[in-house]
């Protein structure tokens, strides 16, 4: 029969075993310890049983219903999302609301959900490290050091480009590195202004302006820059540095998923486990189109 001609799968022929949810959680703790999470955060296992075997893991930024569709269609037994499904306390997980519906579908399908949020931001190789690396920064250090971590762990990163470049050229580079989303990239500052020292923070970073100024950064790349913090920062800079580059929150964190998946795969492989790990292909940026002056 034709299927007998197929090579046997590693599960059948190798010595590797499939990890349980609990064993994946131990690997997660090794890479992104819970002690690095901010006090207000909610990380770790959200739904699922520790003794269930996991042969397929899907990484995603957001645990949306569309991501869940993708996970279940692929046969994943675990989703690792960056954003928590439940950050604020709840009184009900009834399926009458979107979060309860996701929880019901997870449990009914036997798919677990775990969150790696600010612990993933802060850790070495975390979200902002990946951004710094993608932008070509060197001599990288945290904008705000973690209280409980190593000197290289903490929120945001600051480092230097190999050469001074114009704000316009750097913004173009940021645009080309991040995934394509409807909102694009917004920039505040002189197009021809030269920059070399770059501060980055994946996700919403507008609470970090004091640290950005203290770091002597020429430009700050982050997401979700609201009017007042951005406006006040530009006033303080009197039109000069630090310039601002506002990117998609989703996009700034999405870049981390592939190296995170690879890092988890390496830890599990080193422990003799066999799992298939994928990054979600769903764009969970909430915006669909944008109008700018001069649009047709
Ligand atoms: Zn985020």
UniProtKB/TrEMBL annotation:
UniProt keyword list: Metal-binding
GO cellular component, one term: cytoplasm
NCBIfam families: YbgI_SA1388
Pfam families linked: DUF34_NIF3
Binding positions (a divalent metal cation): 82-83, 121, 249, 253
Protein name per its UniProtKB record: GTP cyclohydrolase 1 type 2 homolog
Subunit-structure text: Homohexamer.
Origin superkingdom: Bacteria
GO molecular function, one term: metal ion binding
InterPro entries, sorted: DUF34/NIF3 (IPR002678), DUF34/NIF3_sf (IPR036069)
Family: Belongs to the GTP cyclohydrolase I type 2/NIF3 family.
Biological classification of the source: Bacteria, Bacillati, Actinomycetota, Actinomycetes, Micrococcales
């Amino acid at each position: 029969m034709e299927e007998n001609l197929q090579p046997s799968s590693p599960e059948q022929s190798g010595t590797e075993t499939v990890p349980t949810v609990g064993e994946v959680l131990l690997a997660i703790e090794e890479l992104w310890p819970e002690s690095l999470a901010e006090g207000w955060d909610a990380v770790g296992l959200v739904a699922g049983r520790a003794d269930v075997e996991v042969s397929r893991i899907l990484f995603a930024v957001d645990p949306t219903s569309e991501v869940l569709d993708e996970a279940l269609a692929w046969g994943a037994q675990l989703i690792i999302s960056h954003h928590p499904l439940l950050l604020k306390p709840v009184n009900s997980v009834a399926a009458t609301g979107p979060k309860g519906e996701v929880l019901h579908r997870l449990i009914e399908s036997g798919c677990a959900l775990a969150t790696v949020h600010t612990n993933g931001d802060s850790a070495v190789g975390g979200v902002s490290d990946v951004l710094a690396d993608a932008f070509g920064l060197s001599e990288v250090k945290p904008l705000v050091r973690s209280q409980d971590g190593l000197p290289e762990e903490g929120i945001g990163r600051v480092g230097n480009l190999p050469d001074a470049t114009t704000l316009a050229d750097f913004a173009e580079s940021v645009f080309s590195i991040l995934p394509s989303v409807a909102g694009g990239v917004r920039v505040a500052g002189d197009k021809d202004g030269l920059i070399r020292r770059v501060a980055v923070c994946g996700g919403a970073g507008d609470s970090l302006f004091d640290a950005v100024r203290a770091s002597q950064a020429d430009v700050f790349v982050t997401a979700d820059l609201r009017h007042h913090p951005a406006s006040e920062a530009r006033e303080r800079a009197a039109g000069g540095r630090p310039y601002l580059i506002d990117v998609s929150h989703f996009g700034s964190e999405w870049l981390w998923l592939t190296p995170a998946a690879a890092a988890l795969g390496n830890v599990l492989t080193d422990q003799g486990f066999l799992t298939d790990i994928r990054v979600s292909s769903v764009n969970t940026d909430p915006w669909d189109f944008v109008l700018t002056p001069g649009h047709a």
